[in-house]
Amino acid sequence: MTKRKICIVVGSRANYSSIKAVMRAVQQHPQLELQVVAAASALLDRYGAVVDIMENDGFTIDARLFMLVEGETPATMAKSTGLGLIELPTIFEKLKPDVVLTVGDRFETMSTTLAAAYMNIPLAHTMGGEVSGNIDENIRHAITKFATIHFPASADARERIIRLGERPETVHNVGCPRMDLVAGFLKKESQSDGKLLVEGVGSNFDVNDDFLLVSQHPVTGEYGRGEQQVAATLGACLELGMPTLVLWPNADAGSEDVSRGIRKFREQHPNAPFRYVKNLPPEIYMPLMARTRCLIGNSSSAIREGAFIGTPAVNIGSRQTARERGDNVIDAGYTQAEIVTAIKDRLAKGRLPSNPIYGDGNAGPRIADILATAEFDINKVITY
Fold first, then answer.
1. DSSP three-state, residue 6
2. Of 114, 300, 312, 348, which residue has the fewest beta carbons closer than 10 angstroms?
3. pLDDT single digits (tens) 64-78
4. How far apart (Å, rounded) are the C-alpha atoms in residues 123 and 378?
5. Upper half-sphere CA count for residue 91 (Cβ side, 13 Å)
6. Do 29 and 59 meet the contact criterion of CB atoms below 8 Å apart?
7. Which of 293, 297, 228 is nearest to 265 (CA)?
8. Secondary structure of 209-254 in HEC code, one letter for each residue
9. Cα dihedral angle (328, 330, 336, 338), rounded to 10 degrees?
10. How far apart are CA 27 and CA 58, in angstroms?
11. How do beta strands 274-277 and 329-332 pair?
């Protein structure tokens, strides 16, 4: 039997954690062949060299695409997208995939989407139909209109995709593949000796003590304000006096502003009980989410995995505006006072019950089964 070739493009650490469960399920499916393209920040050491983690996890990298233009500005983000669109057709011509799968809403996913669409390759899309505001929402809904088959993470997202004019039979509410990882890691965590190795620089850090976890990324629509925004966040954590683990931002426009804010804070407060980490693999990050007293910033992980785990979380600013969420999240503005108040609220509430808004931890096998059997029609017509 000829296996159906599924090509998955991974462009960042967030991409990988969002699709790893599907990659594993496709790899193990008897009717499917996995192809992996590592691209953009997934290849760069300063963003954690996710490509090395993928290889260590047992995935073969079929192609590497260096497409990230230095600068992390709106202009370089657009240029990076264009560079990806120039190079990906050559990769797809070589690999000859039967289906290309693209993940979520990052800028590099637009390169994948347009290349596949113009080459008449059926496009599968995960995590579509959600509301978040920011440029991510524009990208997400644009990909929906190019995609041949949809794998939303919630019932609300599925309904929104159908209202965008997509045929209901192509829209499958499978849950979020990130929940597969969460479920697996939490099971291992419950059976572990409680030890987690957290690298990085800064003060000594014991994961068995109370600590705060900060994951804050640039907001592309608020370019130039990242340094001030992250300084307020770190100042709030310092004011509370708890040990704090700080992650470096992603590669979106404004990343250097946020990074500069973190570096300045580190230099100005060398004795703060803070530890700074370039990248955490999912098997470390998710148990940390289960242990932290509060996750602070604007990462979607606070809303997605956080709801599943019950992690108390403070969502800062506009990056996740209107995204469907559970009771674990409270919103805050950008001032230090607002952030301190919100963190105190979460600390008082403590760990919350699990709320599986985004799935039950079995998305990967569901997606693989559908990819193996679905009939694809690339000639789309809007349904209204």
1. strand
2. 348
3. 999 999 888 889 999
4. 8
5. 26
6. no
7. 228
8. CCCEEEECCCCHHHCCCHHHHHHHHHHHHHHHCCCEEEECCCCCCC
9. -140
10. 10
11. unpaired
> Is the per-residue pLDDT at 183 higher than 90?
no
Query: How far apart (Å, rounded) are the C-alpha atoms in residues 233 and 115?
Result: 39
Element (H, E) at 64: strand 63-65
Query: What values do phi and psi take at 307, rounded to 5?
Result: -65, -40
Are residues 328 and 311 in contact, defined by beta-carbon separation less than 8 angstroms? Answer: yes
- 328's CB contacts (< 8 A; 6+ apart) are 302, 306, 307, 309, 310, 311, 312, 313, 352, 355
3-class DSSP assignment, residue 346? helix
The single-letter code of the amino acid at 203 is: S
DSSP secondary structure of 278-307:
S---HHHHHHHHHH-SEEEES-GGGTHHHH
Tokens encoding 38: 């590592």
CA distance 310 to 327: 8
The pair phi, psi for residue 105, each rounded to 5°, is: -150, 15
Say how many Å lie between the first and final Cα of the chain, rounded: 39
- Dihedral sign from CA coordinates of 150, 152, 155, 160: negative
pLDDT tens-digit profile of 115-140? 999 999 999 999 999 988 778 889 99
Q: Are strands 274-277 and 201-202 parallel, antiparallel or unpaired?
A: antiparallel
Q: Model-level pTM?
A: 0.80
DSSP string across 357-371:
TT--S-HHHHHHHHH
